[in-house]
Each structure stands twice: as structure tokens, then as C-alpha cells.
Write a structure and sequence with these properties.
The protein is mostly helical. The protein is built from 2 helices and no strands. The protein has one domain.
Length: 91
């Protein structure tokens, strides 16, 4: 059960929830503006929602990919440097 609720899964779930929430908030906002100005929007309301969702998802996915490939070498080199520093210190 603890593997299912790992920090990686929680971040993934939060990103998906943020994308859905941004979709519904954007479509609602466009709908309200169209009603308030009594004009028709230029595109379908869902297009605005998808656009905002992409602005939420794409940076999160790019950061996740960068972290996936860069985290292990960065953490390993930091641990090695710290170990070498500790080993070189006189006790």
C-alpha cells in the first residue's frame, strides 16, 4: 500500500488534478465573459480549456523528464563528494 502512495505518484496525481481544474476554470471563465459581454467567443470554450491545461501539463512533464534523467547522476556525485570530504577529514 505504501508503494501506491509514493511521493512520485502523489506529485503525478496533483499534476493531473491541476490540469483538470485549470480546464474547468478556463472554460467557465470564457463562458462567463461571453455571457457578460453578450458576444460569442472566437473559439469553442473547450479550446481555451485545453490551452490552459497544456500550460499546466507541459512544464510539469518537462521538469519530470529532466528530473528523471538528471537526478540520479546529480545525487550520486553529491554523495560521493560528501563521502570523500568526510574521509579526508582527520578524526
Amino acid at each position: 500500500m505504501s508503494d501506491f502512495l509514493s511521493p512520485n505518484f502523489l506529485v503525478f496525481a496533483a499534476t493531473i488534478v491541476a490540469a483538470f481544474l485549470s480546464f474547468y476554470l478556463a472554460t467557465g471563465r470564457v463562458r462567463k465573459q461571453a455571457i457578460a459581454s453578450q458576444t460569442k467567443s472566437h473559439s469553442l470554450n473547450q479550446y481555451y480549456g485545453f490551452y490552459v491545461s497544456l500550460w499546466v501539463l507541459v512544464p510539469a512533464i518537462l521538469l519530470a523528464l529532466i528530473w528523471m534523467f538528471a537526478a540520479d547522476p546529480m545525487l550520486t556525485s553529491a554523495a560521493k563528494a560528501r563521502m570523500e570530504c568526510r574521509l579526508s577529514e582527520p578524526t
